[in-house]
Amino acid sequence: MKKTIATLVLATVLVGTGGTMALADESGPDTPISTDATENGIVSEDGSPRSVDEGGTGTGAGSGSGGGLQHSPVSSPSSLCEGGRIVYTARDASTAFTVASGKDATVSGESDITLSISRSTTFSVGGSITSTTGVSVSAGVAAVKEDIGVTISANYSGTSSSSGSWKVPHNWKLGRLEIGSIKHTGSVQRYVENKACKLVASGDPLRYKAPERGWSFRHVHVS
């Protein structure tokens, strides 16, 4: 009874000070309350900071299937390289935080109020992965995982393991907590080895504008 009364009093205080609070599902451990004061700061479900590249400077292939390949001629005594190797290289053109659709995907409050997102609500973020005759969806997703280091899907939905609890900074008049996914825009190119033992682009690239399979939270300075 005392716990119930305390919860009601807390909710009343928050609403009375101008905040809108979504109480998290308490069935399991949650991440600690964040005190991040970065404008439009983004954190993952485990509280780790994330960044996006909306300017489109791009993220090149890493040390995976694409980044570790040699695109210059490779010596071969018999020069029988043609078709001997087929590889896929993923490259991000840009990344952006996309707010999820679904009830209570955003919640706002005034300074010093702790905001959170329900862990029992299902959210979703849509996107697209367009395959070609040379690059299938599965090959494209695998290349992105290897080269960029994330798993993408055309659509992502589900509940979050974290409530993203965040305390609005004291010097902010109004803050907003948002749940969403980091959406990647880019392409996956197929390369085939030719007679000169050089990897050359083959066919049209797969195009993707797809969310990561995982939730992130953004801290917005409204005013």
What does this structure look like?
The chain is mainly β and 223 residues long. It has one domain (22-221). Helix content is 12%, strand content 34%. It is built from two helices and 13 strands. The chain has helices spanning 2-16, 137-147, and strands at 41-44, 49-50, 86-99, 106-110, 114-115, 123-126, 128-130, 155-158, 166-167, 174-193, 199-201, 206-211, 216-221. The strands form three sheets. Strands 1, 2, 3, 4, 7, 10, 11, 12 and 13 form a nine-stranded antiparallel beta sheet that branches. Strands 5-9 form a two-stranded antiparallel sheet. A two-stranded antiparallel sheet has the order 6-8. A hairpin with a 4-residue loop joins strand 1 (41-44) and strand 2 (49-50). The two termini are 38 Å apart. Mean pLDDT is 81; it is low at 1-26 and 61-78. Residues 1-24 form the signal peptide.
Distinctive features:
single chain; about 220 residues; mainly beta; nine-stranded antiparallel β-sheet; two-stranded antiparallel ribbon; about 35% strand; signal
Précis, in short:
With 223 residues, the chain is mainly β. It has helices spanning 2-16, 137-147; strands spanning 41-44, 49-50, 86-99, 106-110, 114-115, 123-126, 128-130, 155-158, 166-167, 174-193, 199-201, 206-211, 216-221.
- Poorly predicted segments: 1-26, 61-78
Number of DSSP strands? 13
> How many structural domains?
1
Query: What does the overall shape look like?
Result: elongated
Strand content: 25-35%
Q: What is the SS-derived class?
A: mainly beta
Order of helices and strands: HEEEEEEEHEEEEEE
**Cα Rg:** 23 Å
Largest sheet: 9 strands, antiparallel
- The average pLDDT is 81
- How far apart the termini lie comes to 38 Å
What is the helix fraction of residues, given as a range? 10-25%
Q: Number of helix segments?
A: 2
Keywords: Signal
Biased composition (Gly residues): 55-69
Signal peptide: 1-24
Region (Disordered): 22-80
